[in-house]
């Protein structure tokens, strides 16, 4: 299928350019510095989710690596499934002196891909300088986890509650996966971040949840260790040929593709699968990106690119990033541009399938 071929090309491009990111395509001189300045690293989510952990991981590294050693602070602007913060960033494109950067997630990409009328931001106006791939894990309470045996057949009669930021946010990926698996899942829409969904789970107000890798490692793995939660599937990652394989951060957890193949009525081919896969690529393979405002001076862009190259070249980077974020590619230079394009591109067929599903299952219309 054309869409599958496009997805494979995206996977190959991401792998190829990320391998070159540290050695090619980055300016070697920059004449700006940010001495005495404060850099605001704005994310459009609450302080309790995976985006917050990702931003707080990179913020002090940027302070150390940027010329002039500015103070880098993470600023939270949650609301409307992250579109409020993205709209704010679009309106503040004049702050292009290097003191404002913006971090997006799949929850910001998806409304853009679906042409949500709340979106007043244009990704192509922004300058990508970092792209981070990530993963995600779905987990259940201990009692329901005990009934999981590698497929969802025995759980299709259970009634699930899921705390969700909204049907057009990053939660689109799990919601569509749940539907394909035949699970009866009632989303409670309106939470401000995935961390709030985890808190609902911990309070017993939800009995199914997922977290992106960084938040899972920090906040859910302790629940698993205490016997309070059971992981049942990850989203997986793309290999060099565009196949979904097990996430190296969670090699013992089966992928959604594996669970789907084992579950009656779920298929890893056809329109539903291709739609899920398209949004998985946008939401996870190229999930989190850092942008400078459009119009930022080339020397300031170079300042960030060189700082990020220095961060990724640290001898301890693999160790400290794996502990905080999981084992995923961090892409800069041309790699970040390729990831940016992958994150904001979806086929018309996949978009229409998702729009029809959102209308039929949740009464959500984007007109």
TrEMBL record:
User: Which keywords annotate this record?
Assistant: Signal
What start and end residues bound the annotated signal peptide? 1-32
- Lineage top rank: taxon: Bacteria
For this protein, the record's InterPro entries field holds: BUG, Bug_dom1, TAT_signal
Q: Do you know which PANTHER family this protein is assigned to?
A: TRICARBOXYLATE-BINDING PROTEIN (PTHR42928), UPF0065 PROTEIN YFLP (PTHR42928:SF3)
Q: Say which family it is in.
A: Belongs to the UPF0065 (bug) family.
Q: Would you tell me the protein name for this molecule?
A: Tricarboxylate transporter
